[in-house]
UniProtKB/TrEMBL annotation:
InterPro entries the UniProt entry points to: Velvet, Velvet_dom, Velvet_dom_sf
Protein name: Velvet domain-containing protein
Taxonomic superkingdom: Eukaryota
Region annotated Disordered, chain positions: 229-252
Disulfide bond as UniProt keyword: no
PANTHER family the record matches: SPORE DEVELOPMENT REGULATOR VOSA, VELVET COMPLEX SUBUNIT B
UniProt KW keywords: Nucleus, Transcription, Transcription regulation
Acidic residues composition bias: residue spans: 236-252
Keyword Nucleus applies: yes
Compartments (UniProt record): Nucleus
Family annotation (Pfam families): Velvet (PF11754)
Domain Velvet: 25-224
An example Gene Ontology CC term for this record: nucleus
């Protein structure tokens, strides 16, 4: 005689691929550490060519820990991890993602009747807004050799620019594009960044050992080996991009 149907029986359990899973399976195992804090920038304005990168270029390290709290470098997982940068207020309480572009505002009123909503509206047209932070806002996860010779998971942002002067901070959010969820699984806030008008910008800093280390391995970082300052004028930087061939990547 056939046994009665039991939905709770292991024989009728759904396959593992359909079993419920945690929404954030790696949330507690990821930590973003800012290894190189951004400090200053020259505002780039609203043009499309005069981009001025934030200096120093933000460099982050991802520390992943297993269930025992031990740090691990998961090469397969690194292929699905990305880090996104967004602009926030200096204290990190408000996002500063958009700004009004003066060129997008109407220069004169046209000789035609205005709608009532237009008369009482103080908001600029939608096309008057542009992103305050521009450049490459997303970094893939790099598996590179650290200064101590250990394989490390890095994110680098060598081409971030801010359109307007002021004090800001950067928020870095970690995403796993291999998961169904679109939520960030980790984030970290940078120190205060001072964005200067062109006439008061103190100049770029000399490239750090970490920047040079990643540049040799393939990250397109601007490497500055000499800082030139002229008396009574704004500091100028001497940029020397390393032309050395990136080191070949070796499988672990």
């Amino acid at each position: 005689m056939q046994a009665p149907f039991d939905a709770l029986s292991p024989a009728y359990a759904p396959p593992p691929s359909l079993a419920p899973r945690r929404l954030f399976p790696y949330e507690c195992n990821n930590e973003l550490i800012i290894r190189q804090q951004p400090n200053r920038a020259r505002m780039c304005g609203f043009g499309s060519k005069d981009y001025r990168p934030i200096d120093p270029a933000p460099i982050l390290q991802l520390v992943r820990r297993d269930e025992h709290g031990r740090a691990v470098v998961d090469y397969q997982k690194a292929t699905t991890l990305v880090c996104h940068a967004s602009l926030w207020s200096a204290d990190g309480s408000e996002e500063r993602s958009v700004v009004i572009n003066p060129a997008g505002l109407p220069k004169r009123l046209e000789a035609r009747p205005l709608q009532e909503a237009q008369i009482f509206s103080t908001q600029p047209p939608v096309e008057g807004y542009v992103a305050t932070l521009c450049g490459n806002l997303v970094s893939p996860c790099y598996v590179f050799t650290d200064l101590d010779g250990q394989k490390t998971l890095f994110f680098a942002f060598p081409a971030l620019s801010v359109r307007t002067s002021g004090q800001y901070s950067l928020r870095f959010s970690l995403f796993d594009i291999g998961q169904d969820s679109s939520h960030a699984i980790a984030f970290v806030l940078s120190n205060l960044i001072e964005v200067y008008p062109p006439k008061t910008f103190p100049g770029m800093t000399e490239s750090s050992a970490l920047s040079k280390c990643l540049a040799r391995q393939g990250v397109k970082l601007h490497i500055r080996t000499e800082i030139r300052r002229t008396s009574g004028q704004v500091a100028e930087e001497q940029d020397d991009e390393e032309e050395a061939e990136p080191e070949a990547y070796e499988e672990p």
